Amino acid sequence: MTMELTLAEKAALLSGQSVWESRAVPRAGIRALNLSDGPHGIRKQLGSGDHLGINGSAPATCFPTAATVANSWNPELAELVGEALGAEAAALDVDVVLGPGLNIKRSPLCGRNFEYFSEDPYLSGKVAAGYVRGIQSQGVAACPKHFAANSQELRRLASDSVVDERTLREIYLTAFEIVVREAAPKTIMSAYNRVNGTYAHENAHLLQEILRDEWGFDGLVVSDWGGSNDAVAAAQAGGTLEMPSPGLDSARQLIAAVEEGRLSEEDLDARVAEVIALVERVDPALARKVDDAAHHALALRVAQESQVLLRNTGVLPLAQGTKVAVVGDFAKTPRYQGAGSSLVNPTQLDTALEAMAGTGLEMTAYAQGFHRLGGQDEALAAEAVEAARGADAVLLYLGLDETSESEGNDRTHMRLPSNQIALLARLREVNENVVVILSAGSAIEMPWLEDCAALVHGYLGGQAGAAAALDVVTGTINPSGRLAETYPVRLEDNPSHRYYPGRGETAEYREGLFAGYRYYATAQVPVLFPFGFGLSYTSFEYSDLAVTDAGVTFTLENTGDVAGAEVPQLYIGREGAGVHRPVRELKGFAKVALEPGEKTTVTLPFDAYTFRHYSVAQGRWAVESGEYTVSVGASVEDVRLTATHTVEGDAAPVDRRDELPSYHAATVTDVSDEEFEALLGRELPASTPGAGAPLGLNSPLLAMHEARNPAARFAASTLKRLIDRSQRKGKPDLNLYFLYNMPFRSIAKMTNGAASMEMVEAIVTIVNGRSFAGIGALASGAVRNARESKAMAADLTHPTPQASQPASNR
After folding, report:
1. Alpha helices in 282-408 (DSSP H)
2. Which of 66, 111, 622, 678 would disulfide-bridge 153, Cβ 3.0–4.6 Å?
3. 120, 164, 224, 733: which is the annotated catalytic residue?
4. Domain spans of the chain?
């Protein structure tokens, strides 16, 4: 279809009308689209919108977070979650669901890990593809995020992810590739950060060469909220829609670029066509009717399948009539989701105390035990110890509080609060049967593990998570969750520890391919719990492995006394010389439910991802000819069956062992500049500006601590004090986190036209100590912004025929 649009209308379509709406052109039949957060529940805000969810939202089913659902290892279950999310989105007039989030868990410290699936791209991609298929089956668009290499919250809008091409492709892009190829999302959200020097929303290598040309993506790329840097560069590179509304400043920049010949109208038309196509492709009328009760039941099922039993000395499951003391603040006030833009207002919320009624257990007492924000309280602890004395078992609810895991703020350690650990030790002294039920969205250290008789990890289980954990405790369900991330013994064991987070202008991915289990297994570093681990109330036997060019088959038998589900996992490693590789990489999995004594043949096929590596020298994916070890097991460390398989590839082995010794040996925790540069194939960019260098448009506000203007230094100190105060209160202020880490340019990008980029340049001039010049420029810029915005708004309201130009044919 061809329609007539003015240059102004085309330019205006590439940025939002408000916080959550795209622009409409009613005369051309182009309606506005409503976008909303929704990785684990729809967050349709009521009243005035704000991108961090400070204002209230409509009730919606709060499903377990992505970090939890990944533990189910069940893409079909994820697809059911997606269907529910899509239906609820349509019921709330939401056209685009901003999720799922599938960035790789490079470090356990990332404040947003609860929103991400795994440290492994194959598992992440397969589960996320289920979400996308489900969401889009209801006529709305899914929007996988954040594309790409978005691994830390510190300086997240101003950081440059420095990563070699092979690692970028194999670790940080593969999950997105799987989703695009298998689920065809209608939109994708670009990340805040730079990737190798260029902002993600204007990175042609990511958005055009890889996403569109190589993978065949035909949808719209939307910026993360405030993540657009240069509207003209974005349009040239494949960044479609800038959100939220920057007023008409970006549109004016696009018009000027076309008129001056800096932006071709073909590029502009291509982006406009993507917006129009999305308007035509979404149809929320296709969605089924929402049933809140059925969705709560689904949330319970998902939480049940995602519970991970990490320790059991034989105390679980608890028999009917067992007298239990319930201890812990989280039993009364559950921690069931993370903090930030994903925050959901649940339709209902189970608590452990309420869910106890239907378990068959006899609760003898409840004691709060501790303050969730830390600090010793002898009275609370003594009450808990007394409650534990007369019980057959203690259900102790421990976890991370709301300030520990939040968008906008990374963790600084992996420990539980010391008052919780101290209470566990005291309870163990009076009752040997302490069952810990843990709530946390990411890995934690557990030097206290031997003090509990059993450990059930529910992660962040959503609105029905409390009931699901008790179903595991009582044996109502047999736990079948398996860890989607490694639990190191201590933070310092993590391969990225020395490099994370990047505190300057760069975040250096010096560990390369060796993220998560790829490092621990290859470097033979002991871990607390390996990737893929999880206990069951039954046992499984693997046998009869057969390997063909098509894949593997084997027999799986439930050799225990109760029904259960196992997650057999396929790992591949290459033998002999060749490019450096982890010793094992996940390349397939299944979830198999078996009755006692039942056996079945399981087939795990090979696919396009099984043997490949990215050849930087050839600029393509390649398969090295040679011998490969095929392993099947219950975790990356619990290998039950192995075989050797010969592969006739399309590339001869390439060995750079002399040039990259650390990577061939997986000793990547302290890689030298010289070796990292050899891996990158270029010189390292500077991580910090020179001493006394002026701040720029992309300097974060936290950099004002070193500003020349004393008022700017005072503003930075004030922001930091306010953040610290909110953390002490246990209520992280996400707006403060955002402000502290955002670059100056976001003042123009996030204020709906109140400030233009010209005005922001004047503000930076003031911050850099040239107050009089900056104030004058700010005043004149404000006048010009108001005048030009008014004129363009009039042009959009009453377009003239002379200005009309044809949009692209689609």
Report:
1. 292-306, 329-332, 352-355, 378-389
2. 111
3. 224
4. 4-46+56-286, 304-508, 538-655, 701-802
